[in-house]
């Protein structure tokens, strides 16, 4: 009898009781808009920003409506104009090139390595094509950030980090989002903290922080922020920075603050699950484990492995057979975008040239969510199912 997994890959944990209480308090007083505060009151959104800035060791933090909004705001704040080229990852999800397109700019795609990080040699070759890099730490894989920053600094390229999958991760001990000029995070349900929708942006640059705050829709109420630069900085930019409304509200912020306090513990729980799955997949014939560099502290909220050089049909068979046993795998090699998954050549509003080495990697990337509702035994079972099906189909194909 084949084992079957019956859990849900899209079921997150409930919102913690403390967060529910905080949300109820906001609903009871009714002041949900971030600037709607009683005299002397510090609103939940302003407190969230203050706490996230402190946690990240950043001077400034702004909470906004989504991760994608944070990225578009960062692009506007660094001065990207319509028509400008912006370097970005070929292996990422649609909101990343979407944020570039949203400001009328043009994504220039950079390839992916078998480690699932941006190809730094390809980046080196393309650095002279743009003055901004939107660096996506896709699925939590961090590239050699020391080398990347050296290269970008030398070329005068500003780095904006998309940390949608790396909240809580670090490179050589430095938290993800602290290397570039701006770090952007998502608080959407499938991320490391969950307010349904929501985003956070951090920076040490006072002018970028002031511009981002004005852009998010602060009107002239920016003095109610607790992690923003002083009014003199806003004086310099307030007449020339548009309001592109995208604030966070106090209800979401109330839900997020207790979750942030618990993030380190959650990271540990994700990694226990990730390691169980990784161990279970080790030495599966035809399956390549994605090695994690020693300098990287990751958050195993999803796991990827490669079926490199497998034919489309055999990969489709693995996906189908795993699905029949309750294991949902996503594939970056499919010709058509499906669900949350798409590829650089699916984004036809942006020109791209084929990258054969990256295409080979993308064609073999299998991707799976690891929600915290999975027990460690669930993770072992899931790994056994994948191992079983991959081995069976690999042996058939090679016999
Ligand atoms: C890699 C990546 N970047 C950015 C985003 C955008 O985040 P949000 O959904 O909060 O706009 C996502 C969302 O899934 C993502 O996966």
UniProtKB/TrEMBL annotation:
GO BP terms: polysaccharide biosynthetic process
Annotated active site: 191 (proton acceptor)
GO molecular function: pyridoxal phosphate binding; transaminase activity
Its EC number(s): 2.6.1.98
Record PTM N6-(pyridoxal phosphate)lysine, positions in chain: 191
Highest taxon above the source species: Bacteria
SUPFAM superfamilies listed in its UniProt record: PLP-dependent transferases
Pfam families: DegT_DnrJ_EryC1 (PF01041)
Keyword field: Aminotransferase, Pyridoxal phosphate, Transferase
Protein's recorded name: UDP-2-acetamido-2-deoxy-3-oxo-D-glucuronate aminotransferase
């Amino acid at each position: 009898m084949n084992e079957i997994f019956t859990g849900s890959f899209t079921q997150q944990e409930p919102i913690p009781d403390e967060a529910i209480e905080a949300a109820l308090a906001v609903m009871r007083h009714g002041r949900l808009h971030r600037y709607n505060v009683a005299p002397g009151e510090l609103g939940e959104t302003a407190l969230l920003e203050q706490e996230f800035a402190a946690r990240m060791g950043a001077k400034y933090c702004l909470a906004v409506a989504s991760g994608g909004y944070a990225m578009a705001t960062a692009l506007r704040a660094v001065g990207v104009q319509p028509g400008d080229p912006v370097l970005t990852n070929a292996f990422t999800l649609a909101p990343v090139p979407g944020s570039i397109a949203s400001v009328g700019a043009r994504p220039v795609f950079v390839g992916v390595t078998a480690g699932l990080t941006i190809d730094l040699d390809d980046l080196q070759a393309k650095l002279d094509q743009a003055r901004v890099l939107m660096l996506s730490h896709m699925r939590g894989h961090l590239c050699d950030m020391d080398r990347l920053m050296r290269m970008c600094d030398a070329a005068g390229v500003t780095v904006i980090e998309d940390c949608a999958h790396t909240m809580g991760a670090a490179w050589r001990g430095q938290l993800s989002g602290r290397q570039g000029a701006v770090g952007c995070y998502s608080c959407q349900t499938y991320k490391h903290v969950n307010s349904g929708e929501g985003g956070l942006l951090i920076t040490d640059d006072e002018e970028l922080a002031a511009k981002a705050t004005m852009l998010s829709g602060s009107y002239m109420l920016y003095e109610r922020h607790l992690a923003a630069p002083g009014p003199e900085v806003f004086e310099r930019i307030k007449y020339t920075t548009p309001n592109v409304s995208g604030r966070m509200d106090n209800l979401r912020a109330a839900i997020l603050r207790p979750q942030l306090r618990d993030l380190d513990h959650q990271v540990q729980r994700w990694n226990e699950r990730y390691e169980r799955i990784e161990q279970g997949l080790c030495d599966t014939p035809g399956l390549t484990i994605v090695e994690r560099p020693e300098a990287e502290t990751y958050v195993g909220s999803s796991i990827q492995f490669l079926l490199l050089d497998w034919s489309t049909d055999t990969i489709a068979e693995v996906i189908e057979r795993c699905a029949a046993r309750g294991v949902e795998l996503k594939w970056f090699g499919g010709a058509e975008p499906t669900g949350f998954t798409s590829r650089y050549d699916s984004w036809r509003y942006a020109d791209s040239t084929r990258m054969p080495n990256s295409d080979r990697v993308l064609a073999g990337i299998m991707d799976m969510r690891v929600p915290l509702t999975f027990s460690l035994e669930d993770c072992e079972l899931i790994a056994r199912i994948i191992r079983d099906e991959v081995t069976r189909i690999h042996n058939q194909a090679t016999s």
